[in-house]
Amino acid sequence: MKARRMKRTLAKSPEAELSVEKTAHSKKKNKFRIFSKMKVMSLRSGMDIPFLFLVLTILVVGVIMMFSASYPYAFYHNHDSFFFIKRQLIFAILGVVSMIMVSNIDYTSLHKLTVPLLGTSFVLLILVLFMPAMNGVHRWIQLGTASFQASEITKFAIILSFSHFISLNLHRMHTFRYGILPYLLILAPTIVLLALEPHISCSVIVILLAAGMLFIGGVKLKWFGMVIGAIASALIYLVLFTDKLTYANNRIAGWLDPFGSSSGVDTWQTRQGLYAIGSGGILGLGLGNSRQKYLYIPEPQNDFIFSVVCEELGFVGAVLILLLFALLVWRGMLIAIRAKDKFGMLLGIGLTAQVGLQVILNIAVVTNTIPNTGISLPFFSYGGTSLMMLLAQMGVILSISRSSRMEKS
Amino acid sequence: MAKGITIRMQRRSMIVLVILVFLGFPMLVCRLIALQMFQGEYLQKMASQQQLRDTKINPRRGTIFDRNMNPLAQSATVWTVVLEPSYIDSEEKRELICSGMNEILGVEKEKLIKLSKKKSCYTIIKKKVESDVKDKIVDFKTKNGITSGLRLIEDYKRYYPLKNFASTVIGFTGADSQGLAGVEASYEKVLRGEPGRILTARNALGTEMPFEYEQRLDPTPGCSLKLCIDEAIQRFMEKAVEEGIKTHKVQNRAAAIAMDVNTGEILGMAVKGDFDANEPFKIADPAIEEKIAALPEEEKAKAKNQALSQQWRNKAVSDTYYPGSVFKMVTASMGLELNVVNESSNFNCNGSIKPFEGAKPIRCHKHSGHGSQTFVKALCNSCNPAFITLGQRIGAENFFKFYKDFGFHSKTGIDLPGESGDIFFSADGSMAPTDLCVASMGQNFSITPIQMITAAAAIANGGNLVQPHVVKEVLDENGNTVKKINPAPKRRVISKETARRVTAMLHENATNGAARNAYIPGYRVAGKTGTSQKIGLSAPGQMDYISSFCGFAPADDPKIVMLVFFDTPKGDHYYGAAVAAPAFVTAMQDILPYMGIEKVYSEEELEKINTVVPELIGKSVGEAKNTAASLSLRVVVVGNGDKVISQIPDPSSHIPKDGKIILHTDSSSSSSIKVPKLVGLTPAEVNKIASQLGLNINFSGIKLEEQGVASTAQSIPEGTEVPMGTVVTVNFIHHDSTD
User: Fold this and answer.
1) CA pair distance B465, B493, nearest whole angstrom
2) How confident is the model over B58-69, as a mean pLDDT?
């Protein structure tokens, strides 16, 4: 296996260099000059063009759809149809700039950021609990006119710290002391703090990301079995012997019967989202023609934006967007697997999996496949700071790709 | 493999990748397929339901015309005033609109404020607002710059320009312009038209989306109707029925139907004890309203409903009654058709008859008996024993066969709502012997007036049962005929010959028989009177009566048949001959000339007929005298001129032979006369008084030399000052008629 891969890589390299020469000498292929220039920087230092292309495509589609979805809401609530798009556009541009900047930084220098970032994450998670509640939850930290979710930092901190520690202790991952304990010490307080906000959906993402990274890092499968068993028995206990989960129970009732009128269950958002998706049919009502965005779907520019996408672009449009996301995940994973070191690999996989998980969970919520919980759709949902951070993280992946051993155009 | 990326790491990464890309995403695609393809239609429907607002625009309802295109029911544009609470976004605006509407519409302000706070996009504050008020609202809106929150929507209001006129036949409409009675109800689908719609997309707040979704579908106006009813004929009938009700203190309303005998077209249908179709929910009879007002509170609503359904009820098609002796024309037809009797068959009447062994004797209305009589005489006497005998000759089976043929056993199918059917002795037509006896004289089974007149029309038109109908044509909005309603006769009931013979007998009856009160000189009336008993409503155990007359004219070529029907007269008389026949004459003596039916006088009639006053103005006195003498009229000359400058009575009025014409030859006026009381006298007495005073009398309802008649009405009231020679019409009826 090892030998075969080596051979393939070796076999590819001259071929790639050949094509670079060809392009450089060909007047016909002027339009590829930018790509060519990047390539000229050599295979090892060039960034991955397909990934960049996918990010930018999804970003453009996302911003357009955000504009369409937010238009009526902004009209009625902010008396300015362009209220959201103006902010989103600014952050998108800043985000792309920071992505390019980050992509030029050597990601290995992020090792040094691990502890400060982890510290910041905890500070913010504690700080946010003292922030005024919005809709009954403490998630937002206000910074002047802008605000951001503390958990956005947390997710990155978890990915970074896990990548850092796992890459350092890879050969000891099978032990409890090095394979489980440090991560438990990071994860447990994080989850507790998130639960206090409360922010269940983020906890789920954090747990899934952590589990995935530990899995790749080589933690023994029996630990997973034990944790899954513990969680399952805890859940069974809570459901059977306490009423601590009534809140969740109601959500599950609403999930199972979104059109029912059971008391105490607010399924308005889910129901309106489903109406929108169903109304789209195969080809959709056309861009800008969603009816459900007219105040039926609450805040259509946020978590439920995909239902507006389905209504306007139909099944075909929705599947094309899903395909773009799938390709992004595929390409991101490929970059990570071919990274020059374990740290880069783990970081790349963590960041890519975060995007993939959020997309899958968000759309699963919107399509009522799982109970409703607040997860935003990357690149689509409104939120300036989170979009900028997301793009910066994509910059990290691009940085990894610069030293990744693969064809990059 | 640089920097220790192990194969296990790669393998496990691939597992994560596969879970995400090959499990997560396909799962989402499956969900989308389920939602967008399989449940799409359902979800879309649910979405549309909440997104679309459907506002109905009422169509213009068709007009109802009489047969000469005089409008009887019309729709005019009115307005519905609507509040749009979701557009009232400030207290200031609410206050402005509510106080403005309070001022203009008179709706309570608190109520308006409450409505304006309702969570809806559309609440009606007043319906059927007229154009002048609408203009005020439009002014109010422009003055205050109100562009939203208050809206006017076009609607229509039904007007009945002639008010009570034919209201039970035309009917009326409800709050949503839906026909509730009469032709308005039976032709609802034709008149209504198709409502239009404004389909507006709305957002979750209920306000319209500011963008492109609004679709308007224009309403299709309803078709108009041209009735068979002739406004003039209807008017004559209503007048006659109203007079009859007043004169004879009729307790339970009255009706008259006039029909074209050959086509079944209803030329007039007067039901009195009616209502103003513009205000159908108001109790029209002030006496009843007072009575209800006096009732305890909890009984009022019920009593009011009862009174309303009573005044809306079309007696001519919804009431059933014993036809009584009027039915004898049908029994006679059966007898002649079956050849079990002829005009000269002899019947003996000694005041009662024992129809078969062991039966209770049935009395004739003339207790002393009619003696020996021909069949013609028996009909003219309306002799009960004679018709019982005839009934027995016909037999129950034949009786029921003809009963069905004449259309009594099924509804006529007239195009009016609420038609009743008959009530016969048994469903299969079997009758006990006594039943047959009383049935022969029209008792103990119930039919509707419209069934009776349809049967009479069959006798009049030579034996065909026609389809009675009220609507002649359906017209489109531009007045073009869409459909002509010309139903073919249903079937032949009796032979032409039988019909002719019965008609001749009925003509005799209305000339010299019990129905001679229906005699109209020159118009050859044929008819039959009827007085039927019914269980009294006014007091328990007391019998009440329905007085009716059914007749047609002219007997030699019948054109129009009319049934007059008074329910429970409580005046001096209750016999059909005394109550219904005069009303028939009152109406027919106007209707027949109006229809252009020519007078034909028999020799005998010519002898006694009134003369038409000639035009004498401008002639010399001598000439005038000669002309008058040639017509056996007398002349009184006033003044000293030699030419006639004016005359009383006016040319072409009718005065009896021997009447006086006063001729003025200069401007000196002759003395005026006070009209004396001319009611309750014999013709001879009236004649005497009149000639003493210099008045001319027009005798109505009798032949001059007749005995047993008394005057009942005079055209010019007692005490009026009139010039000498004025014509006073005096009505007479026979008092010895008993049926």
Assistant:
1) 6
2) 91
- For B134-173, write each residue's pLDDT tens digit: 888 889 888 888 877 888 888 888 889 998 999 999 999 9
Q: What is the pLDDT of residue A314?
A: 93
Q: Tell me yes or no: is domain B610-734 CATH 3.20.20.220.
A: no
B258: Cβ–Cβ under 8 A, 6 or more apart, which residues?
B233, B237, B266, B267, B268, B269, B560, B561, B562, B587, B591
B89 three-state secondary structure:
coil
Question: How many C-alpha atoms does B26 have within 13 Å on its Cβ side?
Answer: 5
Q: Are residues B437 and B392 in contact, defined by beta-carbon separation less than 8 angstroms?
A: yes
Two structure tokens written together for B492: 């032949």
With CB atoms and an 8 Å threshold, state whether B24 touches A274: no
What is the C-alpha separation between A378 and A301, in angstroms, rounded? Answer: 12
**Across the interface, which of B25, B44, B203 has its CB nearest the CB of A294?**
B203
Query: What average pLDDT does chain B have?
Result: 85
Handedness of CA B198, B201, B204, B209 (dihedral sign): negative
Does residue A268 carry a pLDDT above 50? Answer: yes
Q: What are phi and psi of B601, to 5 degrees?
A: -105, 140
Token pair for residue A354? 């975060």
* ipTM score for this prediction: 0.84
Cβ A333–B42 below 8 Å, yes or no?
no
Q: Mapped to the 3 state alphabet, what secondary structure does A250-282 carry?
A: HHHHHHHCCCCCCCCCCCHHHHHHHHHHHHHCC
Is residue A377 very low, low, confident or very high in pLDDT (cuts 50, 70, 90)? very high
Q: Establish if B40 touches chain A: CB-CB under 8 angstroms.
A: yes
Model confidence over A335-358: pLDDT tens digits?
Answer: 999 888 899 999 999 999 999 999
For residue A292, the chain B residues in CB contact (below 8 A) are 47, 51
| pLDDT score for B119 | 63
DSSP letters for A10-25: HHHHHHHHHHHHHHHH
Output the CATH code of domain B55-226: 3.90.1310.10
Four-way CATH pick for B318-600: 3.40.50.2000, 3.30.420.40, 3.40.710.10, 3.40.50.150:
3.40.710.10
| Interface test mutation site (partner B, options A2, A205, A216, A400, max chain B beta carbons within 10 A) | A216
Q: What are the residue boundaries of the structural domains of chain A, listed by start?
A: 46-402
Do B6 and A319 make contact, defined as CB atoms within 8 angstroms? no
pTM above 0.95, yes or no: no
**pLDDT of res. B76:** 87
